Amino acid sequence: IRLVIHGGAGTIDRARLSAEREAEYTAALAIALAAGHAVLERGGSSVDAVIAAITVMEDSPLFNAGRGAVFNHEGRNEHDASIMDGATRGAGAVAAVGVIRNPIRAAEAVMRHSPHVMLTGAGAEAFAREQGLEIVDPAWFRTEERWRQLQKAIAAQRIVRDHDALPESAYRDDDKRGTVGAVALDRHGNLAAGTSTGGLTNKRYGRIGDSPVIGAGTWADNRSVAVSATGTGEMFIRSAASHTVAELVRLAGKTPADAADATLAEVAAIGGDGGLIVLDASGEYAMRFNTSGMYRGTVGEDGAGWIGIFGGPERRISLPVAP
């Protein structure tokens, strides 16, 4: 069994991340690892392990997903999420939703209980209600830190009357690109992948990035690998990043690490950056990024957790007891 998670890649400045804040991220990643590992350890499915880990990160205000999601230009939170089952290649996604407490659970419901792959906006929210998922007031997702980030971005942008030509700086949030994701391998040899995000600070209303797009932000296929992406979404869509990784493994025989590096080079060639977590059916995994850092971690059969934030090797930690 193996679980690999990420909490987003970007410009994570070691000098600006206090020891206290680093400890908070490490603890949150450890809790997510413990939750997913507990599922795998008791013989649960890779899909359920992915959901368990991502739900923890969605409920944490530290990450740009769920409760800690960034705001769009209108001051709203719009969430995107997707999940894929490597055994069946079943997939589900939701996009531009604002009242579903855990978007990853809504993505799973689309996969399991509808004939569709992606639902968006009010339609996705209505479906979530029908499925009995927890619906919350939009205020649940608001954090003051994200609100300040929006105000800073708006203050920095050029004033354009129709908002059709916002400068790139109005969209970028290099310090906190905190999309979350997980990939898992269960005792039955099945892979799964999931990704959840709040998108980009100050994004245009209705903008959807790579996270809910199957083959861009998320992919899982037992014949190759499970993948979750984080970074500049438009470029990950344009390079079909997650599917590209899988095909490099399946058809070109590349290792997960080499396939991730090659794909990130393709993303960089069109002006993007970010990270990828990759896991194959033998348990070989990679956590690769071309930014200064990526919140990340993994745990395997022995229950030992490994967590990293900046470049360099991950460090071993003791995982908490999962609830």
How would you describe the overall organization of this protein?
- With 323 residues, this protein is of the alpha+beta class.
- 31% of the residues lie in helices and 24% in strands.
- It is built from eight helices and 13 strands.
- α2 packs antiparallel against α3 and α7 packs across α8.
- About 3% of the residues have low confidence.
Element layout with pairings:
Layout: E1 2-10, H1 19-41, H2 46-58, E2 79-85, E3 90-97, H3 103-113, E4 118-120, H4 121-130, H5 144-156, E5 180-185, E6 191-197, E7 218-220, E8 225-231, H6 233-238, H7 241-250, H8 256-269, E9 274-280, E10 285-289, E11 293-300, E12 305-310, E13 315-317
Helix pairs in contact: 1-2, 2-3, 7-8
**Strand portion, in percent?**
15-25%
Question: What spatial order of strands do you see in the largest sheet?
Answer: 4-3-2-6-5-1-11-12-13
Sequence stretches where pLDDT stays below 50 over 5 or more residues? 166-176
Q: Count the strands?
A: 13
Q: Compute the average pLDDT.
A: 92
Backbone CA Rg: 18 Å
- Compressed to H and E, one letter per element, the order equals EHHEEHEHHEEEEHHHEEEEE
Structural class: alpha+beta
Main β-sheet description: 9 strands, mixed
Estimate the helix proportion, in percent: 25-40%
Q: What's the helix count?
A: 8
Task: State the separation between the terminal residues, measured CA to CA.
Answer: 20 Å
Shape: globular
